[in-house]
């Protein structure tokens, strides 16, 4: 039984009926305005007293509905109601105001259909049930049987049960009409309220921008935390080995550990704050170390663990890393940091670092070259355990360079492992400037 009655009077059908009644209610201001105009044009007659004039007022109100449906905010309002009351999956409906005229016209068509059909269903819902009740109880009431309709239905030619059957048929017909109208709107909702090609493109661009921000935050976390853990592990191990024989070195290593963890906790808190707030726009305002701000400190903290690090710096004609473009200085710092982290995790000997600004074919470039002995084979490294790491740091360094139009090369180079990054800084006509 439920299989047959569910589509007509089930929970979804009832909710769609409410949606239609809402459309009828929204049509009332338009209908009242149209009745005033039609009544004035007809010589000041009462429109409600004439069925033709009432229908004419209804027809005249629909162009007004279509006109207001062109406003951009109509689509999100309609989509929210349709998503909640028609049973259409939310992902098939667009979010946000309609911006293109194609989307506005589709939203206007939906607005007109919803209000127009809703008004008809509302009128039927008000008129049919009382009429059906009267027909059902007519055989039990002498007054009703004596009325005009009762005289006709209970004439000698009519069967006594015709009136109740007609009343029940009217109720069933009303349920069928309401269910059909609700199903029609549910079918049309994705067509008229669904995202346009422009909406899909905008959503894709938004997702791409969000993914780019998340990737950047992931790189910041990987580089900052990864380097800190590598440096702290090396410094703690070196301090443990000379704990009794060289107290001065131990104090220096502990101071470096304190400074490294303090800086990393600050960076970690900034990144986690951005993730927690969910505001990608703040990512560009996130404080990040630069060559001018912390390169010497980074090198000192690396040496504090006992690592032999030879560094050569050549800022070029500017004479100061502070003259570099801020974004180039920031990304270069992270590339150097990742190179040092990689060397500390996998290398076994001294590190040589060269950072210089030079001119190639009329364009200024920042070049970073870092070499260190290659990692030992797995059977001789870390007690026979293979080294860990999935190459995310080098991939992140490549992404950082690519953002500036540069490149990163990493791999064996003769008897050493070499990391080389080249970042363009612009032409020689703008020293100290940048992209």
TrEMBL record:
Domain (Histidine kinase/HSP90-like ATPase) ranges: 331-423
Alphabetical keyword list: ATP-binding, Kinase, Membrane, Nucleotide-binding, Phosphoprotein, Transferase, Transmembrane, Transmembrane helix, Two-component regulatory system
InterPro entries in UniProt: HATPase_C_sf (IPR036890), HATPase_dom (IPR003594), Sensor_HK_TwoCompSys (IPR050482), Sig_transdc_His_kin_sub3_dim/P (IPR011712)
Spans traversing the lipid bilayer: 20-43, 55-74, 109-141, 161-186
Keyword Phosphoprotein carried by entry: yes
Ranges where the record places region Disordered: 370-395
Molecular-function annotations in GO: ATP binding; phosphorelay sensor kinase activity; protein dimerization activity
Catalysed reaction, written as an equation: ATP + protein L-histidine = ADP + protein N-phospho-L-histidine
E.C. designation(s): 2.7.13.3
Cellular component GO terms, alphabetical: membrane
Pfam families: HATPase_c, HisKA_3
Top enzyme class: transferase
Residue span(s) of domain Signal transduction histidine kinase subgroup 3 dimerisation and phosphoacceptor: 214-278
Protein name in UniProt: histidine kinase
């Amino acid at each position: 039984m439920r299989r047959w009655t569910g589509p007509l009077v089930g929970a979804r059908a009832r909710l769609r009926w409410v949606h239609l009644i809402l459309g009828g209610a929204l049509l009332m201001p338009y209908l009242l305005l149209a009745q005033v105009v039609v009544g004035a044009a007809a010589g000041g007659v009462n429109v409600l007293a004439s069925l033709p004039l009432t229908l004419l007022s209804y027809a005249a109100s629909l162009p007004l509905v279509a006109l207001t449906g062109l406003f951009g905010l109509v689509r999100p309002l309609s989509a929210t109601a349709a998503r909640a009351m028609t049973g259409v999956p939310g992902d098939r409906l667009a979010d946000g105001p309609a911006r293109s005229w194609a989307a506005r016209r589709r939203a206007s068509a939906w607005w007109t259909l919803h209000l127009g059909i809703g008004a008809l269903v509302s009128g039927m819902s008000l008129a049919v049930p009382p009429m059906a009740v009267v027909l059902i109880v007519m055989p039990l009431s002498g007054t009703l049987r004596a009325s005009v309709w009762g005289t006709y239905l209970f004439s000698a030619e009519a069967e006594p049960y015709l009136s109740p059957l007609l009343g029940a048929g009217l109720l069933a017909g009303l349920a069928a009409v309401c269910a059909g109208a609700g199903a029609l709107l549910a079918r049309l909702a994705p067509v008229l309220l669904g995202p346009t090609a422009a909406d899909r493109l905008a959503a894709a661009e938004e997702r791409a921008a969000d993914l780019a921000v998340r990737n950047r935050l992931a790189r910041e976390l990987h580089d900052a935390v990864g380097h800190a853990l590598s440096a702290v592990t090396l410094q703690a191990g070196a301090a443990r080995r000379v704990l009794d024989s060289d107290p001065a070195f131990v104090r220096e290593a502990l101071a470096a550990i304190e400074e490294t963890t303090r800086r990393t906790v600050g960076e970690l808190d900034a990144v986690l704050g951005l993730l927690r707030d969910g505001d990608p726009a703040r990512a560009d305002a996130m404080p990040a170390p630069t060559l001018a701000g912390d390169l010497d400190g980074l090198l000192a903290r690396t040496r504090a663990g006992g690592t032999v690090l030879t560094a050569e710096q050549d800022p070029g004609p500017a004479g100061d890393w502070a003259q570099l473009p801020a974004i180039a200085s920031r990304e270069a710092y992270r590339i150097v940091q990742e190179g040092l982290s990689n060397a500390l995790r996998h290398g076994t000997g001294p590190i040589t670092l060269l950072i210089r600004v030079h001119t190639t074919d009329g364009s200024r470039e920042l070049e970073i070259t870092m070499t260190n002995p290659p990692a030992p084979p797995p059977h001789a490294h870390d007690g026979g355990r293979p080294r860990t790491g999935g190459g995310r740091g080098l991939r992140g360094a490549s992404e950082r360079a690519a953002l500036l139009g540069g490149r990163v090369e990493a791999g064996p180079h003769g008897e050493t492992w070499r990391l080389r990054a080249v970042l363009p800084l612009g032409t020689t006509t703008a020293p100290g400037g940048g992209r």
